[in-house]
Amino acid sequence: MDVRATSPMVSVVIPAKNAAAYIGETIASALAQAEVSEIIVVDDGSTDGTMAIVGAIRDPRLRLMTNDTGGVSAARNLGARNADGDWLVFLDADDRLRPDAVTTLLMAAKSAPRAVLVYGDYNTIDSAGRTIGRRDLLKGRQKPSGNVLERLARGNFIVNGGIMLVRTDAFRASGGFDVSLRYCEDWHCWCRLAATGEFAYVPKLLLDYRLHTTNTMSAALRTPQDFFPAVARVFDDPLILGQLPKDAVPKLRQAAEIHLVTYSAMQAVRFGRYREALAYLGMIGQRSLKAMPRSAAKIALSLFGI
């Protein structure tokens, strides 16, 4: 019996730019998922051996497209437009899916037929693939399911597209990723999806999120000001605002800013820039003194990879 005839089809979209060091392992982790019907790698102007590595993999489920340096959002949108699957996974070219990740998500989706997005959690690994995160310490933590828009507008608790399944038709109807945003374009996209339907959470680690020199140095250079354009975009989006209580919007926007400043402080701590972290904590205090203890706790936990 053809499994595809009885099970939903899942398309994995992998934007890639100069990802030769990891792309082979990333694709292998997707090919190992029994329910994955196709993997679309969208090359975004690589100048290393990325395309050669992908081209050398012989599997009928693998497709290679080119994006001509249009950026990661455009690459994801291109892959999604050309996907045949009922569900989409947006997997970064340096991460890897854990065994049975897609099976776990599909089971959760079956139990939540109204969900447009089903998601889990992730752990962190280093450039050699060794586990460095300690998110296993948060086994009892529950993230929201159902109508999550208000919670999501306060800050991106999903973080990585590799831990989720998104209904293809819902993603396309939402307009996909906003290519004008340099940062937090995923958060804006998830908010638009949350304005159209329910989310479902499964409390399992489904992805190894790789931290290495290239992406950590990029993260190290970001400041809260880099993220604030996305806040403006979220809270100026008619689709999102139409599903939020009008009187709640100012506090939600403030919470979103605090969330992003806290994230910036956590990154500063990870790179040993404690003076910057303290300055960011001061920015939080300017917005809300009540938010400072919770933010300070998160910043402290970042020392332990949580």
Written description of the protein model:
The chain has 14 helices and eight strands. It has helices at 3-6, 23-31, 50-55, 72-81, 101-111, 149-153, 168-174, 185-194, 213-220, 224-234, 238-241, 249-270, 274-287, 292-301, and strands spanning 10-16, 36-43, 62-66, 87-90, 96-97, 115-125, 164-167, 198-210. Strands 3-2-1-4-7-6-8-5 form an eight-stranded mixed β-sheet. Helix 10 (224-234) runs antiparallel to helix 12, helix 12 runs parallel beside helix 14 and helix 13 runs antiparallel to helix 14 (292-301). The longest helix has 22 residues, at 249-270. The termini are far apart.
Please describe the topology of this protein.
Layout: H1 3-6, E1 10-16, H2 23-31, E2 36-43, H3 50-55, E3 62-66, H4 72-81, E4 87-90, E5 96-97, H5 101-111, E6 115-125, H6 149-153, E7 164-167, H7 168-174, H8 185-194, E8 198-210, H9 213-220, H10 224-234, H11 238-241, H12 249-270, H13 274-287, H14 292-301
Parallel strand pairs: 1-2, 1-4, 2-3, 6-8
Antiparallel strand pairs: 4-7, 5-8, 6-7
Question: Which characteristics define this entry?
Answer:
306 residues, alpha/beta, eight-stranded mixed sheet, 14 helices, 8 strands, globular, disordered N terminus
- Described by the principal axes of the CA atoms, the overall outline is globular
> CA-to-CA gap between the ends?
44 Å
Largest sheet: 8 strands, mixed
**What fraction of the residues are assigned to beta strands by DSSP?**
15-25%
The topology string of helices and strands comes to: HEHEHEHEEHEHEHHEHHHHHH
Query: What is the gyration radius calculated from CA atoms?
Result: 19 Å
What would you call the structural class?
alpha/beta
| Strand arrangement across the biggest beta sheet | 3-2-1-4-7-6-8-5
Helix content: 40-55%
Mean pLDDT: 91
Number of E strands: 8
What are the low-pLDDT stretches, counting only 5+ consecutive residues below 50? 1-5
Number of helices: 14
